[in-house]
C-alpha cells in the first residue's frame, strides 16, 4: 500500500537526470538544459543551458552553458519535450529581442510593485520579502 504514495522529496528527481529539462525561476527566467545533478535541497546542475526570453509572438535563446541553480529559486521543473505549442512562435536573434524583453520586465515589476502597495495599504497584506514573509 505504501508504494501507491507519491514520492515528493528531491529523490523523485532521480528519473529526470540526463534529460532535457525546463526550469522556471522565481525571478521569471526560463532555463532549458540537461539535468546533470541535484542534491537534497533540490539545488540543480544544468548542462548546455539556454535562457529563453519571449516577447509577443517571438522568442530568443541565449546560451549560458553550465548552470548551478539554488533549489529555493526553482518555481517549476519539468521535462522539455522539444515540441512547440499550437501557437507558432518565431525565433529571432537574442540581441534584437533583449531590449523589448527588458522593457516588458521593467513594466511588469512596476505593475507588481504598485499592486503590492495597494494590497498593503487597502487590505493589510504583507509586502513580499518584508517582515512575516519567511520562506
Automatic annotation (TrEMBL):
Compartments (UniProt record): Cytoplasm; Cytoplasm, P-body
Protein name: U6 snRNA-associated Sm-like protein LSm1
One biological process term in Gene Ontology: deadenylation-dependent decapping of nuclear-transcribed mRNA
Database matches in PANTHER family: LSM1, U6 SNRNA-ASSOCIATED SM-LIKE PROTEIN LSM1
Record-level Gene Ontology MF annotations: mRNA binding
UniProt source species: Schizopora paradoxa
Family annotation (CDD domains): LSm1
Subunit structure as annotated in this protein's UniProt entry: Component of the heptameric LSM1-LSM7 complex that forms a seven-membered ring structure with a donut shape.
Regions crossing the membrane: none
Pfam families for this protein: LSM
Key words of the record: Cytoplasm, mRNA processing, Ribonucleoprotein, RNA-binding
Top-level taxonomic group: Eukaryota
Similarity comment: Belongs to the snRNP Sm proteins family.
Gene Ontology CC entries for this record: Lsm1-7-Pat1 complex; P-body; ribonucleoprotein complex
Protein function: Component of the cytoplasmic LSM1-LSM7 complex which is involved in mRNA degradation.
Amino acid at each position: 500500500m505504501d508504494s501507491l504514495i507519491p514520492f515528493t522529496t528531491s529523490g523523485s528527481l532521480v528519473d529526470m537526470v540526463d534529460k532535457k529539462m525546463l526550469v522556471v525561476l522565481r525571478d521569471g527566467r526560463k532555463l532549458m538544459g540537461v539535468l546533470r545533478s541535484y542534491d537534497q535541497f533540490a539545488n540543480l546542475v544544468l548542462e548546455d543551458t539556454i535562457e529563453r526570453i519571449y516577447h509577443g509572438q517571438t522568442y530568443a535563446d541565449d546560451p549560458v552553458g553550465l548552470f548551478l541553480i539554488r533549489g529555493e529559486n526553482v518555481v517549476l521543473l519539468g521535462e522539455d519535450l522539444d515540441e512547440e505549442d499550437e501557437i507558432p512562435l518565431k525565433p529571432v536573434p537574442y540581441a534584437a529581442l533583449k531590449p523589448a524583453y527588458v522593457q516588458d520586465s521593467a513594466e511588469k515589476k512596476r505593475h507588481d510593485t504598485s499592486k503590492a502597495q495597494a494590497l498593503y495599504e487597502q487590505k493589510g497584506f504583507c509586502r513580499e520579502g518584508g517582515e512575516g514573509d519567511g520562506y
